[in-house]
Amino acid sequence: KTVENGSFQWSAPSNIALVKYWGKKENQIPANPSISFTLKNCKTITKLSFSKIEKTDNFSFDLLFEGKPKESFRPKIQKFLERVEVYLPFLKEYHFTIDTQNTFPHSSGIASSASGMAALAVNFMSLEKELNPEMTDEYFNQKASFLARLGSGSACRSIKGEVVIWGNHQQTENSSDLFGIEFSDLHPNFKNYQDTILLVDKGEKQVSSTLGHDLMNGHPYAEKRFEQAHHNLSKIKSILAKGDVNEFVKLVESEALTLHSMMMTSMPYFILMKPNTLEIINKIWKFRQETAIQVCFTLDAGANVHVLYPANVREEVLQFIKNELVVHCQNEQYICDEIGNGAMFL
Ligand code: PMV
To answer: Which segments cross the bilayer (predicted)?
Structure first.
């Protein structure tokens, strides 16, 4: 089938890892399996417009961010297109306009690469589906995740499902290094689980994730860490299925601190937490001890804190956040989010 021109628009969310992906091999293959909550509110909305052209030697595309030209995205998108071209052989037969916006504040220190690459991948899959209308939804989602991974590893966990596992794991049927799969056994205790993101440091990332993953090559503790991730993934799957929020708290906080320990013990070494990150962590621990409310934290490769808690304690925890934690945020900024479902066609 030939398709002359048209446009699609998709949103794709960010995600927050519970068992962290840190370390990769060639071709965006993860050194260990990971699992994440898909978010709902923090997302990228991307419109892909396309028109058929004479096949050229180069990719032909314009980039807009919030409606204005954005040339600084070009190298990243160019690299993505080069990587996925073998899987989307029609790319050089079209001129594209890629128009992107995020729902979260610009340079909030929230990585937009997962949501951005996921949104781009589903858009290109929509074009492939126009060309091959008999494509199944399963194929669409799996290939979208596969393509998103080539843009940014963790982006493959932002396509479909509330909880997504990515990476070969012996105890997880159908798991793959090549794409994310949905974990569908979530206990009602985790329904609408909340994630309030405290913006401690909104600056540019101190360590790019590419450099970060590289630091695991030859890292003295790498092998043990990869082993532990396999073990923790088995554990958290059972925790999520049983609804064991107490065990969830322990495992998730330990994973976050382990991620940061890996960075502190690599060469070169980095401390990505800020004093306010530690203030927040200590206050969360004190609050949990005093109230027995099962609120916990997790961290990305940066200083911001994700505060995770069940939906039924939302009021109490938000009060606590406003009274005690917001003072440690840059410009008192935080974002209320919760578990979501993945990419949406708009
Ligand atoms: O997808 P990348 O290459 O930006 O790596 C993300 C790494 C962490 O966010 C630190 C952990 C994870 O699993 O998302």
So the answer is: none
- The answer to whether 272 and 78 have CB atoms below 8 angstroms apart is no
Across 184-202, b (16+ Cβ under 10 Å) vs e yields eebeebbeebbbbbbbbbb
Q: Are 284 and 307 in contact (CB under 8 A)?
A: yes
Q: Is the shortest distance between the CB of 157 and ligand 1 below 6 Å?
A: no
Q: How far is the CA of 208 from the centre of ligand 1 (A)?
A: 10
Count: domains in the chain: 2
Does residue 149 contact residue 125 with C-beta atoms inside 8 Å? no
Q: What is the pLDDT of residues 128-150, one digit of tens each?
A: 999 999 999 999 999 999 999 99
Ligand 1 centroid to Cα of residue 2, in Å, is 37
Does residue 346 belong to any structural domain of this protein?
no
Q: Is 255 in the pocket of ligand 1 (CB under 6 A)?
A: no
Measured distance CA(68)–CA(121) in Å, rounded: 21
- Evaluate whether residue 131 is within a structural domain: yes
DSSP-derived secondary structure for 129-180: HHHSTT--HHHHHHHHHHHHHHH-GGGGGSSB-SEEEES--TTSTT--SSSE
d(CA 99, CA 66) in angstroms, rounded, equals 7
Closest CA to ligand 1's atom 6: 154
| DSSP annotation of 325 | I
| Cβ of 232 below 6 Å from ligand 1 | no
Q: pLDDT tens across 23-39, in order? A: 999 999 999 999 999 99
pLDDT-based confidence at residue 108 (cuts at 50, 70, 90): low
For the Cβ of 166 lying below 6 angstroms from any atom of ligand 1, the answer is: no
Where among 142, 162, 185 does a domain terminate? 185
**What does the alpha-carbon distance between residue 171 and residue 191 come to, in Å, rounded to a whole number?**
24
Mutate to test the pocket of ligand 1, among 19, 21, 83, 226 (most ligand atoms within 8 A of CB): 21
Residues 6+ apart with CB under 8 A from 54: none
**53 plus 20 within the same structural domain:** yes
Q: What is the pTM of this model?
A: 0.97
